[in-house]
Write a structure and sequence with these properties.
With 71 residues, the protein is mostly beta strands. The protein has one domain (3-70). It contains one helix and seven strands, in the order E-E-E-E-H-E-E-E. Strand 3 (18-21) and strand 4 form a beta hairpin. The longest helix is centred in the middle third of the chain and has 7 residues, at 31-37. The radius of gyration is 11 Å and the shape is globular.
C-alpha cells in the first residue's frame, strides 16, 4: 500500500523507500506500525483515492502530519 507522510507545511521528501520530514527520516510504516510511533488525534477524512489520518508526532507533539494511505 502506498503511503505518504505530509507535515503541516507540506514538507515531504521520499528517499530510498523512506520519508524524510524536517530532516528526520521516517520509515515507510504500515498503519499498525505507524500507530506505535505517532499519536492519532480526532480527525479522519477520505479524499479521492486516499485515506487521510491526522497525526501529531508522539515524542515532541510539536508538529502535525497528514498520513495518507492509498485505497
Amino acid at each position: 500500500m502506498k503511503v505518504q507522510i505530509i507535515s503541516e507545511d507540506d514538507y515531504l521528501i521520499e528517499l530510498d523507500g523512506k520519508y524524510e520530514i524536517n530532516n528526520h527520516a521516517i520509515d515507510n510504516f504500515s498503519y499498525d506500525e505507524l500507530r506505535v510511533k505517532f499519536l492519532r488525534i480526532n480527525k479522519f477524512e477520505i479524499k479521492d483515492d486516499w485515506y487521510l489520518y491526522f497525526f501529531k508526532h508522539m515524542r515532541t507533539h510539536d508538529k502535525n502530519y497528514w498520513i495518507a494511505y492509498e485505497k
